[in-house]
Amino acid sequence: MSRFLTHLLLLPTHVSLCLLSLLYWTVVYGTAGLTACLVLIRILWSGFWDPYGTFQWTVRKRPPACLRDPALGKHAYLYGRSSGLRFHYVTKGDNKKPLILFLHGFPENWYSWRYQMVEFSSCYHTVALDLRGCGGSEAPSRLEDYSLESLLYDIRDTIDELGHTSCVLVGHDWGGMLAWHFALERPDMVHRLVIMNAPHPASWLDAVLRRPSQLLRSGQVCFFQLPFLPEIALSLEDFKLVRSLLCGGRVGIRNRAKRLTEAQLEGYLYYLSQPGALTTSLNYYRSLLSNTLYKHQDVAVNSMLIWGEEDSILVEGMSGGTRPYVRGPVVVHTIPDCSHWVQQDQPETVNELLWHFLQDRDIKSNHTADGLITSSSASDWAWNGASNNLWQ
After folding, report:
1. Is 294 a catalytic residue?
2. Catalytic residue among 125, 200, 340, 356, which?
3. pTM of the entire predicted model
4. C-alpha–C-alpha distance, residues 9 and 7, integer Å
5. Is 146 among the residues known to form the active site?
6. Catalytic pick from 111, 270, 285, 325?
7. What pLDDT, in 10s, does the model give residues 82-123?
8. 340 catalytic residue (yes or no)
9. Going along the chain, which residue ranges are E strands?
10. Which of 83, 253, 311, 352 has the fewest beta carbons under 10 Å from its own?
């Protein structure tokens, strides 16, 4: 009898969750369908006027010089204990110093962290990882190989294989989403958490359900849920859409001094042009989006969120909406006139904010300066022995 009453009392909750899930996926796939129609119209129009140029792309045979620049660090490989996969990473700095682990997003690879690798290698063991399926890391083809559990094991194994027990975890875009989840699951392995233009999973869900119309701004995220068509669309005209994402006037890097040169752009296109590379990269969206429902746990580690104010890819308001889901000390910075590609668009500002966060300067004072909207709260530096030596 008591069991029946328990199920009866929980029935409204189960019904609400089912309705919430139905609404969420209706919005996601509705947006995906609308975006797909617009993309198909564009493909047909371009193909009609220039069929050869439209349905043409080149597989790059040799990595560009920017990926081989020794000033950015040393290339190395490790094997994940859980998966057996081989992961490529670039490392710079003394491996006996505290670890900063950088996680990239789409359509990037380790190279997106080049400014931070050089900046922080004097005081930290800096590592920019190519996530599974990306860059020079091994790329399993099945969608189930990109489950959230597997991806989090990759991060844990990387920290272990590098000889550390914890790290400063820094993530951007889907790397930021992974960093949020890892901090939720393994707070003991995250000394500090830095997220760049990636909402807390629960914040993403709240923003979408409160104002579904804003999901149109994130149409690409929904579009990538579809099979085959996103890969075709991204490849056309020799990866024109990828070029537009990184360099376009609406969504690309806004800082003229930091806009990608053709040679730097090839640092991303080299990997993405390889057979199957787009599918393995898009599998992150196809896997991670399904893990946003009901993930309302609070993050307990010291956290900083950096958000490019002119982000045209993610839904507006997600940065501030993250705050209720961080139980530990949190500081939020919004950088004006900065795109989604924040660590490449405004590297000097991002590096300064990182230094302040790591040195506790953000924690000791609340301030608003130079358009940087800052909120702080008290915290303690867990690596007392390490930090005492870093700044002397």
Report:
1. no
2. 340
3. 0.87
4. 5
5. no
6. 285
7. 999 999 999 999 999 999 999 999 999 999 999 999 999 999
8. yes
9. 74-79, 86-92, 99-103, 125-129, 167-172, 190-196, 302-308, 330-335, 368-369, 372-373
10. 352
